[in-house]
């Protein structure tokens, strides 16, 4: 992986499929100064527009179903963005939370999702997948999901409030928790999201993961857990090519 500015997953999406994507690193964040709520024309991004919004650790998705303009402002809070507009990349910002990118190349619709433990446990990923189906006619058999760099099970220790939520919501909670001791355990947030995606009916072969821990790799990623405050965030994005 080295010190690449962005990480891409050829098995997930490529220019040939009409879908462009990237998972950013801290080096890329230094290059890309992305605002919130207003689309920008960002240098080095393979699309005319890139859009990021205020994230609130919820489960709501912003749908962008028309061309963007310089005058557009999106002032609410959302943790997922869905679009069918060619030439628009939808983006999320993370610093230990999980960036999840989704596409249906046949129906030509994509989504970017910000999934911290609250959003993941509350079901932001399944809810966004359902929205893609009901609003744009995406098909389970055509949906591809990529789970990006985030806090790994190696480092992500959680306490009783998180453990209680996981145990109460998921019958399979034991498969995503490690090293239980009293009221603490390590949470495999990527595995939790993968299981949710599979429970939606998406085959495991349509799911890819970038299995890198943001807490471990200080040279590559910002980490709220490691640094104790927000020093910066990585940007991950996906979009339909303006031309195919």
From TrEMBL:
InterPro entries: Cu_polyphenol_OxRdtase, Cu_polyphenol_OxRdtase_sf, Cytotoxic_necrot_fac-like_cat
CDD domains according to UniProt: YfiH
Keywords on record: Hydrolase, Metal-binding, Transferase, Zinc
Pfam families cross-referenced by the UniProt entry: Cu-oxidase_4 (PF02578)
Reactions listed under catalytic activity: inosine + phosphate = alpha-D-ribose 1-phosphate + hypoxanthine; adenosine + H2O + H(+) = inosine + NH4(+); S-methyl-5'-thioadenosine + phosphate = 5-(methylsulfanyl)-alpha-D-ribose 1-phosphate + adenine; adenosine + phosphate = alpha-D-ribose 1-phosphate + adenine
Keyword Zinc: yes
GO MF entry, a single one: hydrolase activity
Family indicated by similarity: Belongs to the purine nucleoside phosphorylase YfiH/LACC1 family.
UniProt cross-references to NCBIfam families, sorted A to Z: peptidoglycan editing factor PgeF
Descriptive protein name: Purine nucleoside phosphorylase
Native organism: Nitrospira lenta
């Amino acid at each position: 992986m080295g010190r690449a500015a962005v990480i891409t997953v050829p098995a997930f999406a490529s220019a040939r499929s009409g879908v462009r994507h990237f998972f950013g690193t801290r080096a890329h964040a230094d290059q890309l100064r992305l605002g919130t709520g207003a689309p920008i024309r960002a240098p080095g991004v393979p699309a005319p527009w890139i859009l990021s919004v205020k994230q609130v650790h919820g489960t709501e998705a912003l749908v962008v179903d028309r061309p963007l303009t310089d005058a557009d402002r999106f002032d609410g809070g959302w943790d997922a963005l869905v679009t069918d507009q060619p030439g628009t990349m939808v983006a999320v910002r993370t610093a230990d939370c999980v960036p999840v990118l989704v596409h249906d190349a046949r129906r030509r619709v994509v989504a970017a999702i910000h999934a911290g433990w609250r959003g993941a446990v509350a079901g932001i990923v399944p809810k966004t997948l359902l929205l893609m189906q009901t609003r744009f006619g995406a098909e389970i058999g055509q949906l591809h999901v990529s789970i990006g760099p985030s806090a790994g099970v190696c480092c992500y220790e959680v306490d009783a409030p998180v453990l209680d939520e996981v145990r109460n919501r998921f019958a399979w909670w034991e498969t995503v928790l490690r090293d239980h001791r009293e009221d603490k355990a390590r949470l495999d947030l990527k595995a939790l999201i993968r299981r949710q995606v599979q429970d939606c009916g998406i085959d495991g072969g349509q799911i890819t993961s970038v299995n890198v821990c943001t807490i471990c790799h200080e040279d590559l990623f910002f980490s709220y857990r490691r640094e104790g405050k927000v020093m910066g965030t990585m940007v991950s994005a996906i979009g339909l090519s303006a031309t195919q």
